[in-house]
Amino acid sequence: MKNKAAIIVAGGKGLRMCGPIAKQYLPVAGLPVLMHTLAVFNRVVPAIDLILVLPASDFPYWEELCAEYKFTLPHRVVSGGNSRFQSVRNGLEALTTEAILVAIHDGVRPFVSDQVILESFVEAERTGSAVAVVALKDSIRKLRDDGKSFFEERQYFRLVQTPQTFQVEKIKKAFKVTELQQFTDDATVYENQGWQVTLIPGNVENIKITTPEDMAYAEFIALRKLADR
Ligand SMILES: Nc1ccn([C@@H]2O[C@H](COP(=O)(O)OP(=O)(O)OP(=O)(O)O)[C@@H](O)[C@H]2O)c(=O)n1
Ligand SMILES: C[C@](O)(CO)[C@H](O)COP(=O)(O)O
């Protein structure tokens, strides 16, 4: 029974990568980024319902890539929206009635660990939500509009990753609102209902491939993972 689902959002344009093709399709260790991401969810939760959100105009290109790379992992493709919020909402609308838990994950985070995915489902089942976060390694300063800056205690901050995993009923309700500027992820949409999110430890390799210098590090992590198998 497909009571666990994952919505892999890849409906963005990847403008900060400044490349001729969107970053979610770039090859890393010989395979497009998105294929790494789909493969890890399929491996960790074999019966998962995988929903891939892509810009509608990229559907033919994705089909071509799947044929070229002989990529046959089962997944459904859904149209993205103009913002990440809208892409997630489209993914949520595509869930079947069987789904009880859903992991929402950036397609451009291919190095999420097996442990983080598994723990996110366990915690979301127990508490309603599970949001992967990591601690900061550097000192931080808060900037003010007048140009001054101030020390902040880093132990009170976390960097937010995905997956952000939820009980389907709750996250679907949370997304039935008008989009707000603070909705940069799914945790902010969930807590807009007045519900507290549960944080779980993410993994440091779970980077969001964003700018050109991320590609060299992504290649390094991918090759190291392949060597470890
Ligand atoms: N309309 C959008 C915008 C973003 N995303 C997805 O949300 C994830 C995180 O977003 P980000 O890294 O900001 O991707 P882009 O919006 O593509 O990047 P940029 O801001 O550089 O254009 C990505 O997997 C991206 O494809 C999406 O599904 N739909
Ligand atoms: C969802 C997210 O990846 C968590 O860190 C992040 O908020 C996406 O932000 P972006 O500015 O759209 O990349």
Structural description of this entry:
The protein is of the alpha/beta class and 229 residues long. The protein has one domain (4-228): Spore Coat Polysaccharide Biosynthesis Protein SpsA, Chain A. The chain contains 7 helices and 11 strands. It has helices at 33-44, 59-68, 84-93, 114-127, 168-174, 186-191, 213-228; strands at residues 4-9, 27-28, 31-32, 49-54, 76-79, 101-106, 129-134, 140-143, 149-152, 159-167, 199-201. The strands form 3 sheets. It has a 7-stranded mixed β-sheet with strand order 5-4-1-6-10-7-11, sandwiched between helices. Strands 2-3 form a two-stranded antiparallel ribbon. Strands 8-9 form a two-stranded antiparallel sheet. Strand 4, helix 2 (59-68) and strand 5 (76-79) form a beta-alpha-beta unit. The longest helix has 16 residues, at 213-228. It is globular. The two termini are 29 Å apart. The mean pLDDT is 97. It binds cytidine-5'-triphosphate (CTP) and ligand LQXTBERG. Residues 84, 106, 160-162, 184-185, 208 line the site of the ligand C[C@](O)(CO)[C@H](O)COP(=O)(O)O. The ligand C[C@](O)(CO)[C@H](O)COP(=O)(O)O binds at residues 84, 106, 160-162, 184-185, 208.
Structural descriptors:
globular; alpha/beta; seven-stranded mixed beta sheet; 33% helix; binds ligand LQXTBERG; 23% strand; 229 residues; binds cytidine-5'-triphosphate; Spore Coat Polysaccharide Biosynthesis Protein SpsA, Chain A
Count of the domains: 1
Question: What series of H and E elements makes up the topology?
Answer: EEEHEHEHEHEEEEHHEH
Q: Whole-Å distance between the termini?
A: 29 Å
**Category by helix and strand content:** alpha/beta
The CATH class = Alpha Beta
Radius of gyration: 18 Å
In the sheet with the most strands, the strands line up as 5-4-1-6-10-7-11
Average of the residue pLDDT scores: 97
CATH architecture: Alpha-Beta Complex
From the spread of the alpha carbons, the general shape counts as globular
Q: Report the biggest beta sheet as strand number plus sense, adding barrel if it closes.
A: 7 strands, mixed
Query: What proportion of the residues is helical, as a percent range?
Result: 25-40%
